[in-house]
């Protein structure tokens, strides 16, 4: 059993007191990774604050992990020492249920092992995430990073990236489709990049006129201000697909009205009750609302390969581990363009 | 211009005072129909009461029309005098927009002409429905009735039938699928019959244990009482498709939880706000909610042919025109198994 340094947080802000967390010795199917960068996801903060219940302390967050292979088990031939690899939201699943067989491990019927705050299958206790120096992961859950991508900007692809790529990919967004991306944050900015790279006509839909310029820089063809009723009314019934990244409950009716007949709006952010939806808005035009959760491992690798091909990374601000509490505060206030990534060298230097 | 007798209703109950309504002389593309039977739909009552706004008085309701061809225009060769025919919710559409070209006239982008209470394209004023002796309809909106079907029981197929058949057909319900039909009324009882005829394992989902026996008689394999939390919990994640016929706003979350991964619940009844839906219930399992509205003319004919093949009609109670106000009262109280149909001979006898 090896020990590494990591940080926990509980209600009061995280401090830099060292804690030892257990990492198993690599089995023959495992990859041992030195973590170089780790993205900061809003769900890290939710889990630190136990907003969803069930948080286990110490929480070591982090599921947007980029690192280098330092050791590999005897059965691992797909990775070499020194390879740049990624680890996302999951580190294991049953591999036998119908969801796993369909390459949708995120819906594993026996419960996927999430990268942190899940029951640890190998050791007592729970899993610890990527705000850490190393991690040991089953080879099936390790992703190959395209060599041309900047590893710092690539970290958020492992959660924000796949969360937005998967619905666009699954619902077959393609050249010429008119796609609306609702909400410009960590998820929304990736949604714009992906939809644009897929050849769609991308409309950024936001409450904030001041975000227009940046949305266009990211690849949006148009910006639609959702508070402008006239502008919304003009675009009614014109969208082939809507990717709704708003992270809180809200009134979805004005967005449903933007959909074409038979078109779908996919929710990826609002893990809470949404305001009353008018049944008539679905019935008129046979419209659809769906949800989507990250993506399976196979699709995550497809997403990374797509990013390699189109040179897509996240717009990030690199921080030291010591800055995490300020970063959380700024993230909560929506003051980050568009993702914080922790340089793990700062943690190594501190210890 | 011919005149026929019909009845209007406005806030106060309909009386049997004769009114003259305009029916155009058949054009070369028209079919003139003697109405024999007309189903009574809940939306007739909504329009009589102006619940949705926009009702034009006198309202002559009725869009589940069965009759015999009495005259046909010169360009009509698909119907002969004496043929049994049906007319549903629509009597015309633009025939040129993308919805019409896709055989989805119910979503005509220029506005389909509904059988009653729509702008009349040929005469001043609005359209009058099937609580009447005759009707003149463009040949494209006249349906052929299979000869083996009892015309009385076939009347409700034109609205309640297509409303439930269309989503089952469009979402490709097939042999062995586990299908839940939510709500046992005029729509729900047709949903059970269709899903069973398609070879599905049909579960009637209802709040009312007393409906169990009848649901099984109609073709349900199982009955699930939605107020029984244990029973609902046991069936979580097990349904391939849900047809939700509840006609009012309600909490859809317990039903969404019944869906399998990637499965859809289609709403056909609730043309009003539904209670807050938890985004997480869609996100976990990539589930979908959609709406559906009647069906296009081509699909309506497919539905009728399917009914002919499987000998499916509605369970009805035949009434005289003079009984309509009592029928409305009973319909509002849910006391009809499962559809009233007016024998139009009673109207002819009265005049």
SSE layout and pairings?
The structure is a homodimer of 351-residue chains.
Chain A: E1 2-6, E2 19-23, E3 30-40, H1 42-48, E4 65-72, E5 84-87, E6 90-92, H2 98-101, E7 113-114, E8 134-138, E9 143-144, H3 151-154, H4 160-170, E10 178-182, H5 186-197, E11 201-206, H6 212-218, E12 222-225, H7 229-234, E13 239-244, H8 253-256, E14 259-267, E15 273-274, E16 277-278, H9 279-283, E17 288-291, H10 297-310, E18 316-320, H11 324-332, E19 339-343, H12 345-350
Parallel strand pairs in A: 10-11, 10-13, 11-12, 13-14, 14-17, 18-19
Antiparallel strand pairs in A: 1-2, 3-4, 3-8, 3-19, 4-5, 5-9, 6-7
How would you characterize this protein structure?
The structure is a homodimer of 351-residue chains. Chain A is an alpha/beta fold. Chain A folds into two domains: 2-159 and 314-350, Medium-chain alcohol dehydrogenases, catalytic domain (Quinone Oxidoreductase, Chain A, domain 1); 162-291, NAD(P)-binding Rossmann-like Domain (Rossmann fold, 3-Layer(aba) Sandwich), CATH 3.40.50. Chain A contains twelve helices and 19 strands. Chain A has helices spanning 42-48, 98-101, 151-154, 160-170, 186-197, 212-218, 229-234, 253-256, 279-283, 297-310, 324-332, 345-350, and strands at 2-6, 19-23, 30-40, 65-72, 84-87, 90-92, 113-114, 134-138, 143-144, 178-182, 201-206, 222-225, 239-244, 259-267, 273-274, 277-278, 288-291, 316-320, 339-343. In chain A, the strands form four sheets. In chain A, strands 3, 4, 5, 8, 9, 18 and 19 form a seven-stranded mixed sheet that branches. In chain A, strand 18 (316-320), helix 11 and strand 19 (339-343) form a beta-alpha-beta unit. In chain A, 54% of the residues are buried. The A-B interface holds A 99, 104, 107, 170, 249, 261, 264, 267-293 and B 99, 104, 107, 170, 249, 261, 264, 267-293. Strand 17 of chain A pairs antiparallel with strand 17 (288-291) of chain B. Chains A, B: Keywords: Metal-binding, Oxidoreductase, Zinc. Chains A, B: Residues 14-342 form the Enoyl reductase (ER) domain. Chains A, B: Its cofactor is Zn(2+). Chains A, B: It holds the Pfam family ADH_N.
């Amino acid at each position: 059993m090896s020990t590494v340094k990591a940080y926990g947080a509980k209600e009061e802000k995280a401090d830099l007191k060292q804690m030892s967390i257990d990492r198993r010795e690599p089995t023959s199917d495992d990859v041992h990774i030195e973590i170089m960068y780790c993205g900061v996801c809003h769900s890290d903060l939710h889990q630190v604050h136990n907003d969803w219940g069930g948080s286990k302390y110490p929480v070591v967050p982090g599921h947007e992990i980029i690192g280098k292979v330092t050791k590999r088990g005897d059965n691992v031939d797909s990775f070499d020492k020194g390879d740049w690899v990624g680890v996302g939201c999951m580190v294991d699943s049953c591999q036998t249920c119908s969801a796993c067989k369909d390459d949708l491990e995120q819906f594993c019927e026996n419960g996927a092992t999430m990268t942190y705050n899940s029951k640890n299958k190998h050791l007592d206790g729970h899993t610890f995430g990527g705000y850490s120096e190393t991690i040991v992961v089953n080879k099936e859950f390790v992703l190959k990073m395209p060599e041309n991508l900047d590893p710092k900007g690539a970290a958020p692809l492992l959660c924000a990236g796949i969360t937005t790529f998967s619905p666009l990919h699954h619902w077959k967004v393609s050249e010429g489709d008119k796609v609306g991306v609702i909400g410009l944050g960590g998820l929304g900015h990736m949604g714009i990049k992906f939809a644009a790279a897929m050849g769609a006509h991308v409309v950024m839909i936001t409450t904030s006129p001041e975000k227009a310029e940046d949305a266009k820089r990211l690849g949006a063809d148009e910006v639609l201000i959702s508070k402008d009723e006239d502008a919304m009314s003009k675009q009614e019934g014109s969208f082939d697909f809507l990717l709704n990244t708003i992270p809180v409950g809200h009134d979805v009716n004005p967005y449903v009205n933007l959909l074409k007949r038979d078109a779908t709006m996919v929710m990826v952010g609002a893990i809470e009750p949404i305001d009353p939806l008018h049944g008539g808005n679905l019935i008129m035009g046979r419209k659809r609302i769906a949800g989507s959760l990250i993506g399976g491992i196979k699709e995550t690798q497809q997403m990374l390969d797509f990013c390699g091909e189109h040179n897509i990374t996240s717009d990030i601000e690199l921080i030291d581990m010591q800055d995490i509490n300020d970063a959380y505060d700024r993230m909560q206030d929506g003051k980050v363009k568009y993702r914080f990534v922790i340089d793990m060298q700062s943690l190594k230097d501190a210890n």
